[in-house]
Amino acid sequence: MTSDDELGRLRALIADPTFEARFEVIGAAGTGGMGEVMRARARDDGRPLAIKLLAATGLSERARFTAEAEILERLDHPAIVGYVAHGVTGRGQPYLAMEWLDGETLADRLRGGPLAIDDAIALGQRLAAALAYAHGQAVIHRDVKPSNVILVGGAVAAARLIDFGVAKGHDRDLTHTGQLIGTPGYMAPEQALGRRAVDGRADLFALGATLYQALAGAPPFAGDEVMAVLAQVLLHEPTPLTAVRPEVPPRLAHLIAALLAKQPDDRLADATVVEAELATMAAARAARDRATLALRPRLVPTTTVAVPRRARRGLTLAAALVVAGAIGLTVAWRAERSTGAGPPMGGAPAAGCDVDVRRGCAARCAAGDGEACYFLGEGHALGFGGLVKDDAGARTALTRGCDLGSGRACTKAATRGLEQLGRGGDDGAIRAAAAAVLRRGCDLGSGHTCRRLGLEYTSPDGRLGADDALAVDALTRGCELADYPSCWAVAGLLDAGRGPAIHRARASAAIAQACAQGAPHPRCAAAR
Q1: Cα–Cα separations (whole angstroms), residue 68 to 50, 247, 294
Q2: What angle do CA 354, 370, 219 make, to 5 degrees?
Q3: What's the chain's Rg over C-alpha atoms?
Q4: Model confidence over 71-108: pLDDT tens digits?
Q5: Which of 109, 160, 232, 465 is most exposed by smallest CB count within 10 Å?
């Protein structure tokens, strides 16, 4: 179709002299499930515009489109896409006119590798300022993610937050309890559970996930299917940023970890605090103030938001699955688990155990399924799946899972054990037991268990005591097992001149092999 034909099609779609007197349509810019976006210019001042035209005719779609327009109309901030107008065309189709943004999305930028640390800090300041303003206007975005951030002119300092299509205003909320709103991998746990009592803390969780990806080059929560991603969001902690990219300042990694807290009450609630903390880091970077960047200040989750009592209950994967089913997500749970997970036991569906602990985890663990022991242990540790929170029961199940060959059970058994340090027990015995469990998991071929072992021997954060030789050895083994965060952690030790020569040579070879296999990291890009 020629450009003239395309323009003719678009004008016929609008068929509105009043619209055409105000806007000159230049061409199509893209299409989506809800309609299409046109490129246009304002006839009065010639400024370039993007105009969204709704194709859907359902009442709910029209209501949501109108809500987006009305929310955007009351926002005026340099880091948020600018509103121009909204209305209905002569053919009865709602439209929304916004400023045209030339640039690339953050998602596009990150396909080429992670951001420089200074750029990530600047990006965080910019987005935190946008969220602070929006929250001050009683607007919750609910879908902050790299593809909803435009780097105007390719500049991080000119980042703009876009797409308020699922935003919630104090006077407009078209969702209902049990409806999943947002993007898996960036939505906060309370969003993943379909709770209506979602506030600005959900946006800050998404900001934390976005900044993590900007620095690590990969999202903190990933999986091949929607439910796998939601399970990560609800049940698992992401790999520490300093393990993925050791040069990230401890203070920055600490802030992002605070933003990714599972429980809303444990998370920062004020975007202005996030912006100020990032400004402090930017100033420290400019002044080469390493002492300030090494601090881990206590980030108090100041909030006046009332959270319903029911919303404070433990986060459950079972609830997430109910949510997903309610909105029609199709999830195919395989009858057999992946390699190393152990065979199905007792005739129960293999996936049933990781969905709801009450549906067979204990029996399958007793029958010799290490992965079932892992889920049983985490159920006791977190109090989900119908189980009462039981730290001792958690450690018992996780240790059995480790003995049965589950690497992640080994990792969790050790970390749960180390949480008992300083609580009146025999700290020496606790450390020895944890080290033995981690070594077993590493010997079983679990790369992430090798990584945890190495990090626990790394000062200042290690709880097993600083030992450079053991740290480099364990992290190198993890790297050799294709656990790339182990590679970058041991690279940081090598850069600091730590570890005996014999271990350093082996570690360098493992890192080179990881880069040759296409591992995404600035160190590999520099080598290429």
Answers
A1: 15, 40, 41
A2: 55
A3: 25
A4: 888 888 999 998 888 888 877 788 899 999 999 999 99
A5: 465
Spatial distance between the Cα atoms of 436 and 449, rounded to a whole number of angstroms: 11
CA distance 338 to 333: 11
List the structure tokens of 292.
């300030």
Angle between helices 117-136 and 250-259 (to 10 degrees): 30
The b/e string for 185-211 (b: 16+ C-beta within 10 A; e otherwise) is bbbbbbbbbbbeebbbbbbbbbbbbbb
Name residues whose C-beta falls within 8 Å of residue 220's C-beta, 6 or more positions apart in sequence.
185, 208, 209, 212, 213, 232, 238, 239, 260
What are the Cα distances from residue 475, in Å, to 60, 244, 448, 498? 53, 12, 9, 13
In contact, 411 and 449? CB cutoff 8 Å: yes
What is the structure's pLDDT at 301?
Answer: 63
Q: Is the entire prediction scored with pTM above 0.70?
A: no
d(CA 465, CA 432) in angstroms, rounded, equals: 11
- Whether the bond between 246 and the residue before it is cis, its omega within 30 degrees of 0, is no
Token pair belonging to 315: 């986060």
Work out the mean pLDDT of the chain and round it to a whole number: 79
Q: Are 87 and 73 in contact (CB under 8 A)?
A: no
**Could you give the CA distance from residue 496 to residue 491 in angstroms, rounded to a whole number?**
9
Placement of tokens 């006077």 in the chain: 171
C-alpha 362, offset from chain centre: 31
Across the chain, which distance is largest between two alpha carbons, in Å? 82
Interhelix angle 271-286/200-216, nearest 10 degrees:
30
3-class DSSP assignment, residue 113: coil
Helices (H) and strands (E) in the chain, counts: 24, 10
**What is the set of active-site residues?**
143
22 CB-near residues (< 8 Å, 6+ apart)? 42, 43, 44, 85
CA distances from 246 to 266, 269, 494 (A): 25, 27, 11
The token pair that represents 64 in the structure block: 């949501």
The identity of residue 525, as a single letter, is A
Distance CA 114, CA 320 (A): 30
pLDDT of residue 331 exceeding 50, the answer is no
Helix (H), strand (E) at residue 99: strand 94-99
* Owner of token pair 């899972």: 401
320 CB burial (10 A radius; 0-12, 13-18, 19+):
buried
Collapse the DSSP code of 96 into the 3-class scheme (helix H, G, I; strand E, B; otherwise coil) and give the result: strand
Q: What whole-number distance in Å separates Cα of residue 441 and Cα of residue 459?
A: 22
Q: How far is CA 206 from the centre of its chain?
A: 6
> Measured on CA atoms in the order 434, 436, 439, 440, is the torsion positive or negative?
negative
